[in-house]
Specification:
The complex is a heterodimer of chains A (about 190) and B (about 250). With about 190 residues, chain A is α/β, with parallel strands linked by helices. Helix content of chain A is about 25%, strand content about 30%. In chain A, strands 10-9-8-7-2-4-12 form a 7-stranded mixed beta sheet, sandwiched between helices. Classes of the chains: A alpha/beta (about 190), B alpha+beta (about 250). The interface between A and B is large, with 46 and 40 residues. Strand 6 of chain A pairs antiparallel with strand 8 of chain B.
Chain lengths: ~190, ~250
């Protein structure tokens, strides 16, 4: 079964994104974007949610933002050191959350995943990777402007075509706490 | 007997940021950390890769940081001070993440192009160009001659070492391919059929004329904003010497 057929099965993964989380995400991306750097915002879900390809409906419930010298932001890349991810793991464990998606910004209009994105990103089955154009500086950025990519085990990342984005991703009106901050500012 | 059997197993938990924890309440004390790591990767649906382009690896961490010696057994690991609590081991699976249009900057020259790109964007003359940063040492520009503003040419500039050397100059077609001569304009020194330009502001030109390197009239000037200089020279050629599009 090819990846397209697999994704259009009735039990394909579906995601809900709180509107407030979307807005928080672009406020975070814009902070780096206005400096001409890529930014990133992590999306979290309750530990009881399992990003599996068995018809799960996953709702992101909170964001996480990264600070400190262990996250390096440049014009064309952003790198997160293992030590910072180790700290993130501890924070998520305390909060009862798991990392289920992320958004990062690219310059210009390129919202596909680069070869670096595919090879060096989170490669967990069911993970949702979102790319924003223009470094995410445009706060009016909507779903239709971004690239949505799901990780399918063994196959790798697959970009969702617009029809699937409309079918499998929705924005919901629920309250969301301020993002977790991981890493030190100094 | 029961005590001996009990001491030969260890309760192991491995946490990962993007998945539910791995738990084995009765892992064999004789199992190595390397073997445990393999089972953990399988549990989370992860695979390590090692190619000429990319190396993606995962590491086991404990409270003290990365565990380097994976040949040690769980029993040996747990026997060390502060490694085991209540007959349980808790570890973390950790990786490095790199995201972006390109990887980390390959060198200081790439950061120089970064700065020159931003400087160029801010100039009035850049309003005629659509500039895109494709990679650390690659820039795409869409340019048109003044006499034919509807004719768009997709320039690809690619450096081996920015400023120090001239860029490779190619023209892309609408599909992004650089092997179509019809993507090229007819400008002095340009050889569309050969997909190169015999000019002293691109690497192909210096490849055709090595003697240019030492001639003060033609050698490459590595000072200043090289990106802007090449784009400006190209635009002047477009505006003053454009002979149409190569038709093959």
């Amino acid at each position: 079964m090819n990846s397209t057929a697999a994704a259009t099965r009735a039990n394909a993964m579906r995601w809900s994104i709180p509107r407030v989380l979307w807005q928080q995400t672009f406020r975070e991306l814009a902070q780096d974007g206005v400096r001409g750097c890529e930014g990133i915002c992590l999306w979290l879900a309750p530990l009881s949610e399992t990003p599996a390809i068995d018809g799960a409906a996953l709702q992101f419930t909170r964001g996480a933002i990264l600070r400190g010298p262990l996250v390096r932001r440049h014009a064309l890349s952003i790198a997160i050191d293992p030590e910072l991810l180790s700290e993130l793991t501890d924070v998520l464990d305390c909060e009862g959350l798991i990392l289920a998606g992320q958004v990062h910004g690219h310059p210009g209009e390129f919202v596909d995943l680069s070869e670096v994105d595919k090879a060096m990103g989170f490669r967990v089955p069911g993970f949702l990777s979102v790319v924003s154009p223009y470094y995410g500086v445009r706060l009016e950025t909507r779903l239709v402007h971004c690239g949505f990519h799901e990780f399918i085990g063994r196959t790798g990342y697959r970009r969702l075509p617009p029809a699937e984005v409309a079918q499998r991703i929705r924005v919901v009106e629920v309250a969301v706490r301020e993002p977790l901050v991981v890493g030190s500012a100094t | 007997m029961d005590a001996q059997v009990k001491s030969s197993t260890i309760d192991v938990t491995v946490k990962y940021a993007a998945g539910k924890p791995f738990r084995d309440k009765a892992a064999a004390a004789s199992e190595t950390l390397l073997s445990l790591k393999a089972r953990v990767l399988t549990h989370f649906g992860l695979e390590e890769t090692n190619t000429p382009e990319f190396v993606k690896t995962y590491h086991l961490h404990d409270g003290a940081g990365r565990i380097d010696n994976l040949s040690q057994t769980l029993g040996d690991y747990a026997a060390q001070d502060d490694r085991k609590k209540d007959d349980k081991i808790e570890l973390k699976l950790v990786e490095q993440i790199v995201q972006g249009r390109d990887g980390p900057p390959p060198g200081a020259d790439a950061l120089l192009l970064d700065a020159d790109f931003e400087e160029t964007l801010a100039l009035d003359e850049a309003a005629r160009w659509k500039l895109e940063r494709i990679g650390w040492r690659e820039v795409w520009a869409t340019m048109s001659p003044r006499s034919a503003p509807g004719e768009k040419y997709f320039v690809r500039l690619l450096w081996q070492r920015y400023r120090e050397e001239p860029p490779s100059l190619k023209f892309r077609d609408a599909d992004g391919r650089v092997d179509d001569p019809r993507a090229w304009p007819l400008l002095p020194g340009f050889r569309p059929a050969s997909l190169d330009a015999c000019v002293n502001y691109c690497s192909e030109g210096f490849g055709l004329h090595p003697e240019w390197r030492n001639d003060p009239r033609t050698r490459w000037d590595s000072r200043g904003n090289s990106l802007l200089r090449v784009l400006s020279i190209l635009q002047i050629a477009f505006d003053e010497q454009y002979g149409g599009r190569y038709a093959g």
